[in-house]
Amino acid sequence: MPLPASRRAFCAHHYRDDPDLIERCGSRTWITRGMNLVIAVTEAQPGAVLARQGQPDEYMALLARRNRG
Length: 69
Prior knowledge:
mainly beta
């Protein structure tokens, strides 16, 4: 039995797709929904603030340095 579209595997292409959010400082964010989680990938610009308010759920921030080689 095939799965409904909402339950099929999906591969997000943040490097290819337009961002879902663009902040005033120029930070770009892509939002991808999974079965039981949401992933937000942000290319933060200098001065950007990553803030959460009124959300008691678990979260994680993974910070990676840009390769300047």
